[in-house]
Amino acid sequence: MHKFLRFIVTLCLIFGITTFAQASGTYEVGDQGDDVAGIQAQLNNLGFNAGAVDGDFGSLTANAVKAFQRSRGLEADGVVGMQTYRALMGRDIPASRDSSTASVRRIVQTSMRYMGVPYVFGGTSPSGFDCSGFTRYIFAQSGIYLPRMADEQFEVGRYVSYGRLQPGDLVFFSTYTSGVSHSGIYIGDGRFISATSSRGVAIDSMDSSYWGPRYIGARRVI
Q: What is the pTM of this model?
């Protein structure tokens, strides 16, 4: 009986720790934005070289985080979790960070699962997508419901300039007709994923010879 109780307590502790870790926001390689820029600035102020304060969490920033963590006796994993953030910034991670970061990662990860799914005009499911059917389906998996058509999706959320693009942003292009006629999901490093008529769901460069001149704008809905 005692062994059984210890087993149950152990399971509860493991479950509790896991749930807490999943609920906590983190900053790590691939993240972008003003919060990351603040982390970089603070690292530089403390003498840990995070490079340019550009809001892009790359390898140099990760190395600076590791050095900071080692100096504070923390696990040097290069990830700014709750303990590291508090030690570095002197406050807790903003509450809004938890849900938004998790949603962005989930959207990008989910979109990648459908690489190669064929293009179907009017398609809205994993058996075949068109461009706006793909973006609508992916965001719906995270509880975010977009209008059906690309030009309608271009009206939701808030405008984002090209230089401020972050993973999870919707990006829009003019292809077969004037105005917005193609939508995709920005995944970082100048790349986006979308359902293309020639290759199905695929990743492309934002500034390729085809997509670059056709880019119209971006919207952020997270």
A: 0.59
